[in-house]
Design a protein that fits this description.
This protein is an alpha+beta fold. It is built from two helices and eleven strands; from the N terminus they run αββββββαβββββ. A hairpin with a 3-residue loop joins strand 2 and strand 3.
Length: about 190
């Protein structure tokens, strides 16, 4: 003998609401592909205490996920070989074993683990060479073209020694703090 449903109408309504909520949740989730051409990763570091070396990385890839207009997740990879400081000799030196060792560690990787939308802080893991560190990054977000594009703006400072970026005999001539300005732009991925 099969059990009888006590109230099939209530169960039907409950199932409808459950399906509606799940459907609505997935519709509010959007994924964006990072656009390397329109993104910028700039940095500054002091040299000889009175000079400032400015540079940038030209190539970045990754994805950004939003939910109901708020960032939910970000994963970004910077191509170390794309470094540019407007000095070819310096760039080649920075890519070598003593500095970034690009041949062995071709990417700088950031993956978010938590996001405080009210305070505008990304909590995540940054990997440079073979060192991973938990970091907090302030950010702002804006959307353009009816949410078909997203822009994340970041201004922060990193300590290079926290990532074991020690430069041997030149170490004392180079500042520890790296000032970073990033504009990460992404385009909506169509399902």
């Amino acid at each position: 003998m099969e059990p009888k449903l006590k109230n099939p109408i209530k169960i039907g309504i409950l199932l409808f609401l459950l399906c509606y909520c799940v459907s609505g949740y997935s519709q509010n989730k959007l994924e964006y592909q990072v656009d390397s051409e329109r993104s910028s990763i700039n940095f500054e570091i002091s040299h000889l205490t009175f000079l400032t070396v400015k540079g940038k990385f030209k190539k970045i890839s990754g994805t950004i996920t939003t939910n109901s207009g708020s960032i939910e997740f970000i994963h970004a990879e910077i191509e170390v070989n794309s470094i540019f400081t407007n000095d070819k000799t310096r760039d080649e030196s920075l890519l070598g074993k003593a500095y970034l060792h690009a041949e062995k560690y071709p990417k700088i990787i950031f993956t978010s683990v938590k996001i405080n939308r009210k305070k505008g802080i990304l909590y995540g893991v940054l990997k440079i060479k073979n060192v991973e560190r938990k970091i907090e990054i302030p950010f702002t977000t804006s959307f353009v073209k009816n949410k078909h594009e997203i822009i994340i703006t970041i201004n922060t400072t990193l300590e290079r020694k926290a990532f074991n970026l020690n430069f041997g005999t030149m170490d004392s001539l180079i500042g520890n703090r790296i000032h970073c300005q990033l504009k990460i732009q992404g385009s909506l991925l169509e399902n």
